[in-house]
Amino acid sequence: MRVLVTGATGFVGGMVARELVRAGREVRLLVRPTADRHNLRDLPVEVALGDVRDLDSVMRATAGCTQVYHVAALYKLWVRHKHEIYDCNVTGTEHVLQAARAQAVERVIYTSSVATLGLPADGTPGNEDTPVSLADMIGHYKRSKFLAEQVALRYTAEGLPVVIVNPSTPVGVGDLKPTPTGKLIVDFLNGRMPGYVDTGLNLVDVEDVARGHVLAADKGKVGEKYLLGHENLTLQQILSLLAELTGRSAPRFKVPYALALGVAYVDAALARLVPGREPFAPPVGVKLSKKKMFFDSSKAVRELGWTQIPVREALHKAVQWFVDNGYVKGMGG
């Protein structure tokens, strides 16, 4: 079986490609000519040069494929030009699904995000069915992923066999850029985190997320969403775990929300004045921190037979990978 994976040079996509190779699939990757292929260097895969924003290249890459894993997305909480996020996440998804329909593929796995899901007002964990709307989306990343998921649902209603997975916050090996969560770990390791805000995240090992994708293709129901997450932890608990794993001190100062937001706005304004500079903590990230992003992934466990390793182990792997790959000053491997 030949499968196409988009976004395979990224954190989740690279692990999905690796899991598919492990599962014995014939894997083709849609890769931008300028993309860093570090995560793919030892994989026996076919590379098709192209970009999800270019429909013709997506059509060529999809030809002859039985399944498509559309993982590609621009995951950034701050960009200089907002159209970059919508071009990649929304238009790119439209192109991939259009090509999948034209090639009559048997199954599409679309990688959405818990960013598109609702959070109950009483603070209990959200799930695939928690009510939510575009008006609830804070920032261009969340809005773009919500709109892209609506595109996927529309194609499903029109007959394309799409299964949606909604990963929470993956951590682990291979976070090249790194992602916002990976940056949090790197900043902690480099002593660049003097304080923390009162928020929470649902963490999951990136390798478990990859397995969840393949299980969704094999066992998932068309038109259904499967939340791929694991443990709900406050940021203070995450930092405490990192402190235990590394022997470094966790920050003790809880930054008031208003102060964090004010500093973030100033930092973002300065970033716009300096080419190549990005804010340390984008205002959108601070706004998102006002709610604890806690979720319940029991549907994927129940219906897909999916399992997850403890988050402590996932964080340990992430720390070791960042150290081994030179992200931590004075501790490069």
Structure description:
There is one protein chain. Helices cover 42% and strands 15% of the residues. It is built from 11 helices and 12 strands. The chain has a 7-stranded parallel β-sheet, sandwiched between helices. The longest helix is centred in the first third of the chain and has 20 residues, at 83-102. The mean pLDDT is 92.
Question: Mind sketching the topology for me?
Answer:
Elements: E1 2-6, H1 11-22, E2 26-31, E3 46-49, H2 55-62, E4 67-70, H3 83-102, E5 107-111, H4 139-157, E6 162-167, E7 169-171, H5 180-189, E8 195-196, E9 200-205, H6 206-219, E10 225-228, E11 231-234, H7 235-246, E12 253-254, H8 257-273, H9 283-288, H10 298-304, H11 311-324
Parallel strand pairs: 1-2, 1-4, 2-3, 4-5, 5-6, 6-10, 7-9, 8-12
Antiparallel strand pairs: 9-11
CATH superfamily of the domain at 2-172 and 204-230 and 294-309: NAD(P)-binding Rossmann-like Domain
Task: Report the CATH architecture of the domain at 2-172 and 204-230 and 294-309.
Answer: 3-Layer(aba) Sandwich
Q: Which consecutive residue ranges, at least 5 long each, have pLDDT under 50? A: none
Strand order of the largest sheet: 3-2-1-4-5-6-10
Percent helix range:
40-55%
Total count of helical runs of at least 4 residues: 11
- First-residue to last-residue Cα separation: 38 Å
Strand composition percent = 15-25%
Report mean pLDDT, rounded to a whole number.
92
Largest sheet: 7 strands, parallel
- The CATH class of the domain at 2-172 and 204-230 and 294-309 is Alpha Beta
Shape: globular
What name is given to the CATH topology of the domain at 2-172 and 204-230 and 294-309? Rossmann fold
Question: What is the alpha-carbon Rg in Å?
Answer: 19 Å
Number of strands: 12
H/E element sequence: EHEEHEHEHEEHEEHEEHEHHHH
> Helix- and strand-based class?
alpha/beta
